[in-house]
Amino acid sequence: MSPSKKTAKKPAARKLATREEAATAVLETVPPSPTPVRAEPPARSQQQEGRYVYGIIESRAPVQFGKSSIGGVSEDVYTVHYADIAAVVSRSPVFIFDPTRDNALAHEHVIETVMKNYTIIPMAFGIVFRTDDDIREVLKSIYSSLKDVLKQMSGKLEFGLKVTWDRDRIIEELKREHDEIHRFHQELTRKHLQSTYFARMQLGRMIDKALAELAANYVRDIYDGLRAVCVASRDNKPIGDKMIMNAAFLIQKDREKEFDNAVNKVATKFGDRLNFKYTGPWPPYNFVNIRLKLERGGAG
Amino acid sequence: MAVERVSGGSSLIDVLDRVLDKGIVIDAWVRISLVGIDLITVEARVVVASIDTYLKYADAVGLTGLVSRPTLGEGAAEEEVVEVTPRPARRRR
Lengths: 300, 93
What we know:
The structure holds two protein chains of two kinds.
Chain A: H1 2-28, H2 42-45, E1 49-58, E2 67-68, E3 75-82, E4 85-93, H3 101-115, E5 121-122, E6 128-129, H4 132-141, H5 143-153, E7 156-165, H6 167-177, H7 179-190, H8 197-226, E8 232-236, E9 243-252, H9 256-270, E10 274-282, E11 288-296
Antiparallel strand pairs in A: 1-4, 1-5, 1-6, 2-3, 3-4, 7-9, 7-10, 8-9
Helix pairs in contact in A: 6-7, 7-8, 8-9
Chain B: E1 3-6, H1 12-19, E2 23-26, H2 28-34, E3 44-53, H3 74-79
């Protein structure tokens, strides 16, 4: 049919025109980018290409770690080297990333992939460098610190342990079983009408004190049960009033099973009084604190 | 017995609790001011402000208390204005 013939011809003509336009555009582009521009959505190609950094590992040879989806775009994860250490990076716009669910998990996912075969010193979320050379420059300037930390963290994993209790239930127990509180509570209940605001305040304080003591004892017992199987531990502030322990443990990789058993053993001991939630393996976030700052260098 | 074990990445709160301010941190204030500007090719270089590894046991609660993060550089950062004058990016091979 003639109409189809017509339409078949048109695209070819259009294609030619586009190619000519493209050629002109290239000629006008100055200066040519040193790195080949990769196929990207138009909005992103306007932005400078940077490097999102996930962490530092020990390696002389280049390594690929699959893909990262930080910023919602799938990019290769590769390494940038200085001597025998390397930064694990992916291409990214120079941009302040929001720690959204997707971004935070993308960051963590890359680190988990790397951890399968390497000791990684994790970078905090959202650090973007402009070029590979900039990264090498940083690796060079903090090389000895990184080497030292990599050595200390070699073959170790972090686990998080959060222990919670049913606070209301424990309070009821205290009212029944804690001698002093029981007596005081009975008294208050019996003379209900005469009970004063002050007396109630006093009961509240007694309960708080008893809860704190009980929690401290429990936490001490938990640490005692885990100390033998961990390299180190850190006590973070519990979140909310149900949590009595928010700890991180550094474990020798080959003792993970032992640690797992120890956690279960301790949890069994407390029956249903305490809930244990433990997470990991993590890279040693809680055991490494490297703060970098910028210092004005000499004019180069 | 109530033990719940989950792998790291499956708990968003635990992820955020770690990735936001732990590990290798570049001073946030400086970082924000640097966006869009060459990090190193500007007249600034990255130095280690502090480095700690916590290879200790948390002993009985209340004895060691919380290991507070060093606030090094926090106060200083507000006064110290690192000027980041953009200049034509150096072409390096």
